[in-house]
């Protein structure tokens, strides 16, 4: 016959076993949940790490692109500056040649030919206003006056203006009213030639591989 004590002991064991089983079940559920959370967190960290790496790569590429663009721009500016320097040297060389030219006999022919051409254009005028360097005025004044009188222009209707040193040589002729003007100065001819010099310079640069 089972005593009350034995029944109580058996009941206690059963209750304890139930509690133990329930505890183990909850512990297992918690461990599984924790494992899922840990795995999710691990995946989240990996994804964030990938995003950070991707962002860093993009920033690095962007920085590289910015630096490359800056270098290219600086190189272009330096190249442009060098081309401008070269053009100025070529123009200066032409000016020096022009300064030598005005001391030759060929310049005398050049001056007279240009003045005659201007007079042929200035028909039916009563007077002339002439801009000329003092050096050339001493050389050509008699010729200018004779050529003008041959066209019916009296000497009193010829006025002279001192040309600027930048003219180098040549002549600028206007009617007395200043409404018609012909610029046959050396500086004007050089300015007209500047575009041609620039074009030839670029052609030569392209031949040696500079097409920038």
TrEMBL record:
| Keyword list, A-Z | Coiled coil, Ion transport, Transport
| Superkingdom assignment | Bacteria
Enumerate the GO terms in the molecular function aspect.
proton-transporting ATPase activity, rotational mechanism
- Output the InterPro entries linked to this UniProt entry: ATPase_E_C, ATPase_V1_Esu
Q: Which residues form a coiled coil?
A: 13-47, 72-100
Per the record, its GO cellular-component terms are: proton-transporting two-sector ATPase complex, catalytic domain
Q: Which family does it belong to?
A: Belongs to the V-ATPase E subunit family.
For this entry, the protein name equals V-type proton ATPase subunit E
